[in-house]
Amino acid sequence: MPRSTVRPYKLLAAHYDELFGFARSWGEFARTNLLANVFPKIDSACDLACGTGTAALELARRGLKVYAVDLSPTMCRLARKKARAAGLPVQVIQADMRNFRLPRPVGLVTCEFDALNHIPRKKDLGSVTKAAARALQPGGHFYFDVNTRLAFEKIWPLTWWLEKPGVVLVMRGGYDESSGKAFANAEWFIREGSLWRRHHEYVEQVCWTAREIREALHAASFRSIRKWDAAPFFKDDPFVRRGYRTFYLARK
Ligand SMILES: C[S@@+](CC[C@H](N)C(=O)[O-])C[C@H]1O[C@@H](n2cnc3c(N)ncnc32)[C@H](O)[C@@H]1O
Questions:
Q1: Which residues touch 42 (CB under 8 Å, ≥6 apart)?
Q2: Sheet holding 195-206, edge to edge
Q3: What is the model's pLDDT at position 171?
Q4: Same structural domain for residues 50 and 19?
Q5: Secondary structure element (H or E) that encloses residue 213, with its range
Q6: pTM of the model
Q7: Does 42 share its domain with 122?
Q8: Domain residue limits at 183
Q9: Which of 1, 4, 6 gets mutated to test ligand 1 (max ligand atoms within 8 A of its CB)?
Q10: Best mutation site among 31, 50, 80 for ligand 1, i.e. most ligand atoms within 8 A of its Cβ?
Q11: For a Cys-Cys bond, which of 106, 174, 175, 187 suits 152, CB 3.0-4.6 Å?
Q12: 167 CA distance to ligand 1 centroid (A)?
């Protein structure tokens, strides 16, 4: 597979809310606090790498016109289904965050839960910041969070066991300092009748330094770049300690 190719989530998409939904309330808490001054000034938003659409739906509940973009067809299908069930005006677009385009510019682009770490090549960060800038109205905001190198060193080498009825996920990974990439092998056990079938999925994330992020934002004409450590927003999560995750807010 060429190094620039992104592996779309498959089983991780199908079981995402079931296994990782618990973490999204922290994301909502951070968004509500960090964007408190932005929300009153906007009428539209785009959630980039929207996953199953949880954040997009919350933005739509605020009365915003919302676009939701994701590369994974399964994620897009689940996000559409959730938006339809909730009766909320979310337009889901299957696209790559490196070159997506919206029907009209918006006041806010969000990209949450370390989705930016999924970009496969260092040089692609600039494509994402430029695509986000193009999607924004003048003065619009780009909000995102990233896993830091410390998280990759401390958390990714651990073995994770997540279990729900009929589904077991074991994740084992590591961090390769020379390439600046973290990886996780996801071993799935899915119950099929009285038997369990094993599947394998591979996830890779790229580590961005604060400097690389600032340079990519500046090159895309973002100004007034602010950042916060995520730990105070993830108070009951033992895996988000100080220095593990950073939130960014940049203004076009
Ligand atoms: C960790 S999940 C985060 C999902 C969601 N933002 C949330 O907060 O739950 C990462 C998401 O990024 C998406 N993704 C990965 N690479 C992408 C790309 N190049 N363009 C668009 N979406 C991408 C995946 O399909 C997945 O839905």
A1: 64, 106, 107, 108, 140, 141
A2: 159-164, 167-176, 181-192, 195-206
A3: 93
A4: yes
A5: helix 210-219
A6: 0.94
A7: yes
A8: 152-204
A9: 6
A10: 50
A11: 175
A12: 21
